[in-house]
Write a structure and sequence with these properties.
The protein has about 260 residues and is an alpha+beta fold. The chain is built from 6 helices and 13 strands. The longest helix has 16 residues, at about 140-155.
Amino acid sequence: MSTSPTPALPNSRTEPDGSAVVRVLSYNIRSMRDDVDALARVISACAPDLVLIQEAPRFFRWRKKLARLARATDLVMLSGGGSAAGPALLCSLRATVERTEDVLLPLTPGLHRRGFATAVVRFGGARLGVLSCHLSLQSQERYEQSGMLLDQLAGMGVPHAVAGGDLNDRPDGRSFRRLADGLRDCWATAPWGGEQTSTPTDPHQRIDGIFATEGIEILGCGVPLGHAGVTDDDLRTATDHLPVLAALRVPPVSPS
């Protein structure tokens, strides 16, 4: 992995017109089975307003473990975890939480249960739907879940939304393409930092991503290689995926 400096993404801020620049991080944390201190340093250095987690702790004392990570990164638990079969959301105190919902997807016998962690939040005058996902390893189930993700966002009743996660699919795969056709692939729209997300020791494929609806301005998105405070050692030891960081400008809610 490159250690050369990466130009900084825009900082979080609220604009005079009520729009908001929001930093979104998507990260598969492998149930916090690796170096949790390194994981916390990576997340903190990215200064996210929202963290879309996959493989959050799901079993014994999972809330306590996720709360520990939230405290270590100066964030708060928003939704998900065991109650969403792995996906979870953390947020900064900048977010005003409107509602949350944990969604369990249909269970295919012999395969892992999957789910979505979702929320609607406000930043200044901007209102944003948020969804974290971890799609199936099985091709047909993954394709069906990608359609469920699009349906879930469409049913949230918000004009703007962001979704991210571990897709278990590459950009040329049909599930990835289905999401990119219905939403905007943030990396493809405004590439920044690194592209490949798996694995930290041998980055060779992009199977994690962040997607946004029309109307959201994508200011930059990618793996935060060389980002201030993010070291190669921490990226290698924190978990078995690389994170994806995006800066988005979300328009304000239109007056009714």
